[in-house]
Design a protein that fits this description.
Two copies of one chain form a homodimer. Chain A is mainly α. Chain A is built from eleven helices and three strands, in the order ααααααααααβββα. Chain A has a three-stranded antiparallel β-sheet, with helices on one face. In chain A, β1 and β2 form a beta hairpin. The interface between A and B is medium-sized, with 19 and 19 residues. Chains A, B: Homodimer.
């Protein structure tokens, strides 16, 4: 039997019904009379709602197509595995010895399902208002500010719409340099619109640097209006 | 401007934020700065959760595949149009004159979207606990008892509840035989409750045979009462 106290600490939540939590942590490979599949069904729906509502409120100007797209980028196996790893859920799940040998404790599908099940269990015993802060906290921890901005705000796309309307052309990005050792590289990118340079910025990848400099340019266009 | 009072009466709910309800009733054909698409995004997620939780609790012995299948049969355009008609939502929506001429007030897609949006709006202004009884009430009104039974048809669970209350024990299913070639096998199952045989039935799988014989037993208990 695992010691849940660390998991509880990590989630800043005290489990009430231990049977329910055990069910949520139990993978079907154990062939017990219960496993976490039913709770996963419930957890999936509640996560979809919490993330949907979060995005609905965070992006009052996005239409439902954009909201769906952003949500789909968070609410999926990869996204939930990321969150499961944030709370080290793999340390607590119950799987068969065959799955254990098969590296099941680190499999995305198993971790993601268990994550949904745990959240389903918390919802069931404590309700939506108890679960919301847990999820939003985890989301913000896992997707750091800069990543969140990139994920949510596609500055390149937004800028392109502006420049096409204003100049009938799209921005040009030039790589000005790259710095640091391979595992810690930074890129510096400049942005040119209609023959004029609008800014220069660094980022941990070319993509991040482009987004950063697109943001700088957008702010200038906003300033003009 | 519509008179909402009838809709409010029908839902047994007082709208708080009139702007939000107007948004929920406004179809995109009107080309206003707002329409019900964002609220529909939210409503879709909240309906999925409410119906999912309802089924989760109603069918403790169904696995997640069965729950998903039942939910999918309720949470879809047809299902929501049925519920929209139950509250005569078509009388209250705002659509363009072109859509009006095009019979838009009776289109499944428009009604279903508006239904999700209205439920999203109620969730937003009053929360999950206010919305749940509204939805469950509508579901039970729209799907009469007999349909619900057929739709869900988890007779085993229903019977178990009856026998636990009446005898403090659960039914026993015995396989009496199996017939036919492998690809077309049939199973015959009998049911025993408190030491007495209540019936025997065939089915294309053990599970289906058990459901069939559980139904036979339920009818006897219903006849008794």
């Amino acid at each position: 039997m695992s010691d849940y106290s660390k998991l509880e600490k990590c989630l800043d939540y005290q489990f009430k019904n231990k049977d329910l939590i055990i069910e949520a942590l139990t993978h079907k490979s154990l062939k017990k009379p219960y496993n976490n599949e039913r709770l996963e069904f419930l957890g999936d729906a509640v996560l979809n709602l919490i993330v949907g509502e979060y995005l609905y409120k965070k992006f009052p100007n996005s239409n439902e197509g954009e909201l769906s797209k952003i949500r789909a980028s968070l609410v999926n196996e990869n996204g939930f595995t990321k969150l499961a790893n944030e709370i080290k859920l793999g340390d607590y799940i119950f799987i068969s010895t065959a799955e254990e040998r098969n590296n099941g404790r680190h499999k995305a599908s198993i971790l993601s399902d268990a994550f949904e099940a745990i959240m389903g269990a918390i919802y069931l015993e404590s309700g939506l208002d108890a679960l919301k802060p847990i999820i939003l906290d985890l989301l913000e921890k896992s997707y750091e500010k800069i990543n969140l901005d990139v994920l949510f705000s596609d500055y390149k796309t937004a800028l392109q719409e502006i420049t096409q309307a204003q100049f009938g052309s799209i921005p040009e990005y030039k790589i000005e340099g790259s710095y640091g050792p391979d595992h810690k590289k930074e890129f510096e990118v400049s942005i040119w619109i209609d023959g004029k340079k609008y800014g220069q910025a660094k980022g941990k990848s070319k993509k991040l640097a482009q987004q950063a400099v697109a943001k700088i340019a957008i702010e200038q266009f906003k300033g003009d209006n």
